[in-house]
Amino acid sequence: MYYNPFDHALQENPYPTYARLRDEAPLYHNEDVDFWALSRYADVSPAFRNHGLYSNSHGVSLEMWDVAAQWGLEPTDLVGFLAMDPPQHNRMRALVSRAFNPSRVAGLEPAVRALTRQHLDSAFEAGSFNFTATIMAIPMDVISELLGIPHEDRAEIRQHLENIIGRGDGDTDLPDTFWVGVEALTTYYKALIAKRRAQPREDLISALVTANLDGEQLTDQEIVGVLTLLNAAGNETVTNLAGNAWYQAWRHPDQRAIAWAGNITGWIEETLRYDGPPQTMARQLTRDTVIYDTMVPAGARMLLIGASANRDERVFPDADRYDLTRDTTQTQMLAFGAGVHFCLGAVLARLQLRVICEELIARVSSYEIDETGITYTHSPTLRGFSTLPTTVSLR
């Protein structure tokens, strides 16, 4: 069998391949792209937690692996503290996490609900719309409000983020559009950072500019890395998860009825398990290690396929069944990772998804999706829809 996360056809339906990996090659080696992959929950879950053996030092995606050697940049310049291990990671996370404490996130709910209603209203007025385009405006505005990005700049920021995330079919190198996006965002963020240094406001950029931990402050480049990470991860995760939930509920009308009866938590959590946006995370093996009777050398590029682990029938009974009544409290899903690198924005993502789902259920009695018009987001790390044509009937 052959597994290549950069293949567009695989990205559109990776789960049969994941099942084969779990059964036939729980340790898989792709010599062409030069990586090893783990796909079973029993392997992926402890690997996420063992940063001493599975290091984040090169970032979390394969195509960024050689970025320092090729372009004179550090992975931290692109993804901030995602490319760090403790203790450096702890310093950065401690500074940024102050913006994501549960009470501050909970306080965002009125703003999230107002933004959600605003964007849904215009879509519902049309009756037929691209669900993805409608939903993506919500986390874009939420993150922008959190960071302090002006309204008039948000469409431009979104385009730069799309350039950073998009990949060509089978392309294992970072495309030119990636660098265009990075350069544009870096220029924009540095100008905004300079403004906040001169005149701080009540936003996250100002908090990062003025943050002080044991006498240390963040550099401009460190702040740029954090802002790029928060904007990209915050927007794409919520947008793709909402689209996947909408699509899976449409494909499974019996489960849609359960969601519409009020089981919103089950709808969100089962979608995270069954078809969550984050698919893979890259790590570097720090020492020679025997895995499944094979010696994997230190320095190896390891791909942890969390989306496969979440479908592992050894852990989740009847794992390929979309079941909103499933008890997801007994075993931790890996959609947001695990250990010290567990997604910092998971609480905010769940809040946004809950509000979006509540508002959809309150207004929509039924809906149809035109499958002939569906297009996918093509990324080796994220799964979702670029176009999800939807027609709604309102209550």
TrEMBL record:
* InterPro entries, per database record: Cyt_P450, Cyt_P450_B, Cyt_P450_CS, Cyt_P450_sf
CDD domains per the record? Answer: CYP130-like
What keywords are annotated for this sequence in UniProt? Heme, Iron, Metal-binding, Monooxygenase, Oxidoreductase
From the record, what ranges are coiled-coil?
none
Pfam families with a match to the protein in the record: p450
* Similarity remark: Belongs to the cytochrome P450 family.
Q: What is this protein called?
A: Cytochrome P450
